[in-house]
Design a protein that fits this description.
It is a single chain. Strand 1 and strand 2 form a beta hairpin. A two-stranded antiparallel ribbon has the order 1-2. The chain is about 75% helix and about 0% strand. Helix 1 crosses helix 7 and helix 3 crosses helix 15. The protein is an all-alpha fold. The longest helix has about 60 residues.
Amino acid sequence: MASATPPQATSTASAGPGATVRAPRRPSAPALPALPPLPVPHGLFLVLIAVCTAVTAANIYVAAPLLPLMARDLGSTPSAVAWIASVAQFGYAAGLLFFAPLGDSVNRRRLVAVLSVVTAGALALGAAASGATALAAAVLVASAATVVPQLLVPLVAERAPAHRRASHVAALIAGLFTGIVAARVLGGLVGQALGWRYVFLGAAALTALLGLASAAVLPAENRKRTGPLFAGLARLPGVVRGSAELRRACIRQAGMYGAWSALWTSLALLLTGRGGDGYGMTTATAGLFGLFGLAASLVAPLAGGLVDRFGAAKVVAYGYGLAAVSVPLFWLGGEALWALCAAAVAIHMALVANHVANQTLALTTTRTPAVANTAYVVAGFAGGALASALAGGAFTHWGWTGVCAVAALWLALGWATTAIPARYRQVRAA
């Protein structure tokens, strides 16, 4: 019985009497560079990074539940300051575009520390703002700098054992959604009790504390940048042009996230509105609606299993179908609280299912997943920011019906602009 020869061993074969031919040695696979050690145990590292992700994610949404309090303090109307919530999303999209690709080329420890300090400083300035314009400028800077989660997710995936990688990354995603829920629930409660300025100051303190602590436990890196600082940004257009699947994922996420943002950022205006314009709730009570966002955390693992089993396209289709059902429920929710509650659960389930499926496409359809992921997340937040801005004006002119119309339009655009061209290509191919 012949024995197997190791790949690196030299084998010989007879080529005639007394002669042998030496088989070429197989090249060995290059050894992966050793990762620098962590200064703390891996479990503590993962927990700290997940908590930091929650706090930084909350900064993007902290303004939404506080809009009525801001308007009262600044001598304006809630609908007149609603655009500040969309400014936060525009800022985050810009930060993703410019800062997230730097995680591949610069020292992440230093970058996380600098961005955390900038975010905390901008939030503190926002707390001291005396007008809507100054507040919007502070929110813009804070949101642009609060892209730390997108820098840390690749790092955690790189450090995780192969058989536990998905669960480690899921811990950060759970932190992300927890931060979104906390921004609405705790922001509303603290804002009602102490005022919106104290919410901003608290967010600034937590961001500085956890951001610097996270930077301290990141592994030491000695990266030397070889190209332009924003080389990753320069590659974005080519990567998007080269992948139809990536373009489809970007557009459909922009449509879904835009519909969710239009409804969710305007919800506080409906819940706290007086008379025929809303339910007359306090800011604290309205903030409790953020608990419906926990549906997102429950759906995420289920959506991942469905994508693995049935493919991303089917999950996106069902997600859009569920979102389409939620819009008329939201419209009914202008008069019936039960419909508003059901719609809040449905839109979060649809958003997360769509996000898991589309991000899977974005990360697996190109040879540059980091750049593709940046394009995908930027497209989603840009769509959300634009829809939020339109929803604020729609609420001013047409009330809650106008907001629901914006959400329906965004869903229709997100689906039609990708489904119709795909159908056209199938007909041509036939």
